[in-house]
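Tokens as discussed.
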């Protein structure tokens, strides 16, 4: 199928989109609209910049990506061979992934030419060096996460139960709520006898947002496989602490989640000039929401007028 160039991105909803919208609408504009088509040869300088900035990552995200890639590869190996890779070997793989991101980030000019292929760490793009405390924390987290991955309830299930059927590993899926497309990607979905289990790897601390994310997955599972809610188990694997948390599925909460999603979509759509083609209103309609929490780690500091203003006043 030929690649179609669209003047505006396709409309869809996701929990990360909702989070960015709530944090700062200007950031939301840069991320979902300003950067669109920034990869094309004839893109404007602004589009190129926003597209490039969108790709910036950080040490925590690289660790999270590395752990997810490791989990995906090891579960696929389990699916094929009923064996898991060696713990030391995969620790080295994730460490390599982190080191590679550091190396890539040292050459900004090279990264600017291929911002999607190479990595750029926020810590180095907007700072001079990696904060030593953070580096030490990441090293400690890497070892903890991998040790707890092997000890997790989910991996123990794989190894000790014969009646496991893996259904999905990191598959990107869509489903619809009120005719609106929703993107979801389950880390792992498997069946154990007649129970359907959704497992999600977390490399950060516990938060309520994670519960909501998993409830959304329950809606997806019900929609795609027609699984009754009472036959589902949704499980968060907190790899930092080694705790497994099972989320109870309450139909009132699921209904509330749907209401919240529709409300979030409505708010996003109020900032569209033409909803049929997802054409946004001008950038000035997307207010900035400066705060230490929002701006400190924001990828778009370089192009945001709020930061320019703060620098002028300092
Ligand atoms: S720097 Fe702050 S105000 Fe500007 S887009 Fe980012 S979060 Fe919003």
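Sequence:
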């Amino acid at each position: 199928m030929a690649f179609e160039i669209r003047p505006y991105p396709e409309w869809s909803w996701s929990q990360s989109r909702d989070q960015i919208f709530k944090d700062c609408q200007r950031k939301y504009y840069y991320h979902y609209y300003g950067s669109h088509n920034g990869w094309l040869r004839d893109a404007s300088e602004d589009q190129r910049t926003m597209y490039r900035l969108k790709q910036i990552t950080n040490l925590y995200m690289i660790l999270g990506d590395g752990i997810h890639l490791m989990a995906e590869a090891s579960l696929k190996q389990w699916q094929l061979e009923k064996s898991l890779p060696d713990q030391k070997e995969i620790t080295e793989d994730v460490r390599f992934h982190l080191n590679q991101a550091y190396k890539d980030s040292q050459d900004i000019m090279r990264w600017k030419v291929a911002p999607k292929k190479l990595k750029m760490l926020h810590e180095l793009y907007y700072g001079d060096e990696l904060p030593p405390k953070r580096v030490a924390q990441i090293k400690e987290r890497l070892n903890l996460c991998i040790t707890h991955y092997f000890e997790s309830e989910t991996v123990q299930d794989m190894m000790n139960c014969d009646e496991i059927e893996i259904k999905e590993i990191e598959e990107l899926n869509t489903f619809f709520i009120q005719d609106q497309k929703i993107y979801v990607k389950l880390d792992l979905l498997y069946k154990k006898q007649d129970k359907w289990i959704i497992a999600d790897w977390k490399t950060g601390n516990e938060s309520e947002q994670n519960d909501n994310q998993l409830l959304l997955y329950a809606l997806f599972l019900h929609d795609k496989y027609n699984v009754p809610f009472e036959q589902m188990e949704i499980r968060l694997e907190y790899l930092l602490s080694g705790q497994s948390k099972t989320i109870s599925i309450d139909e009132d909460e699921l209904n509330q989640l749907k209401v919240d999603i529709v409300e979030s979509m409505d708010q996003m759509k109020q900032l569209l000039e033409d909803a049929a083609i997802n054409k946004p209103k001008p950038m000035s309609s997307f207010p900035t929401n400066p705060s230490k929490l929002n701006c400190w780690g924001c990828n778009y500091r370089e192009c945001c007028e709020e930061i320019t203003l703060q620098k002028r006043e300092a």
